[in-house]
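From the thread on structure requests for the teaching lab: each student submitted one protein with a one-line request. Submission from student K.M.:

"Model A-kinase anchor protein 7 RI-RII subunit-binding domain-containing protein from Melopsittacus undulatus, tokens only."
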Amino acid sequence: MVFAPGEKPGTEQDEVKLQNASKQIVQTAILRAVQQVSQESQQKEKRRNSSTSLQLERGKLAKKHEKK
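Reply posted by the TA:
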């Protein structure tokens, strides 16, 4: 086997280990990114719902005052 300049000889088994480790790192990074986006979406939805509820409550209170 001939190696390019600067390339260190390594076993095929080491190469497989590195590839598997790289895949694991990428999978973990993707999973974390998906989880973060999901959490941010849920938080936005909660804020939107709570804002809507607050607006509805304000509307009900305003109507009660108008009736008096």
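TA comment: The mean pLDDT is 82. Residues 12-67 form the longest helix (56 residues).
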